Amino acid sequence: MMLDATKQDIQRQLLEKELESVGIRLNKQKPNIYFKVKKGGGLSFNSTCNLTKIDEKLVQLILHEYKIFNAEVLFREDCTADELIDVICANRVYLPCLYVYNKIDQISIEEVDRIARQPHSVVVSCNMKLNLDYLLETLWEYLALIRVYTKKPGQPPDFNDGLILRRGASVEHVCHVIHRNLAEAFKYALVWGTSTKYSPQRVGISHIMQDEDVIQVVKK
């Protein structure tokens, strides 16, 4: 989320409120509540921890508002009424968000320091090209991206044109990125890098790649 550092915190608060109203939750985990509608038997309520923000009576009132009279509810953490409603609605989206504050060249160094210390926040100046390298590095981390380089038989790896993949991608993902039919013709792959015990290592299609690995795919 790109923000203007000169507008203090009000811009961020308004945008967060707007996103909250349409069911988007930023930098939050899905509430650890088990919820299941039943055909009969009334409300089955239980918890595995001490609840300080909600009780069985309030849970029942919330369920009745949604015309749910038979359900099983199990709290595995100390959640709020709003978090229970999120679970009942089952249409909330939980997304990581990086707040990028631009125009830091127009505010005091004390204010820059305050903003930079906030969670999930990066300060930059596009005009003066300040802190852009750190922004790129942080984005890479938040998006959980890795670079994988390809190698043709008898040739050095192509370090100028790496494949950008999500962390946890397998050799099969690499094959699909290179060519949609490559996985069908796959025999094995040779991999150099931190994902292997030795280099090169012969691996199968389910092998998990790591950042800056080099791969050579051998077809049938």
Secondary structure layout plus pairing:
Elements: E1 2-4, H1 10-21, E2 24-26, E3 33-37, E4 43-47, H2 56-65, E5 71-75, H3 81-89, E6 93-95, E7 99-102, H4 109-116, E8 121-123, H5 132-142, E9 145-150, E10 163-166, H6 171-178, E11 186-192, E12 201-203, E13 213-219
Parallel strand pairs: 1-7, 2-6, 4-5, 7-8, 9-13
Antiparallel strand pairs: 3-5, 9-10, 11-12, 11-13
Helix pairs in contact: 2-3
Total helix count? Answer: 6
User: CATH homologous superfamily of the largest domain, by name?
Assistant: Beta-grasp domain
Report low-confidence residues grouped into runs of 5 or more.
none
Structural class: alpha/beta
The strand count comes to 13
Please tell me the CATH architecture of the largest domain by its name: Roll
Largest sheet: 5 strands, mixed
Order of SSEs:
EHEEEHEHEEHEHEEHEEE
Q: What integer value in Å does the Rg equal?
A: 25 Å
Number of domains: 3
Please list the strands of the largest sheet in the order they lie side by side. 10-9-13-11-12
CATH fold category name of the largest domain? Ubiquitin-like (UB roll)
Distance between the termini: 46 Å
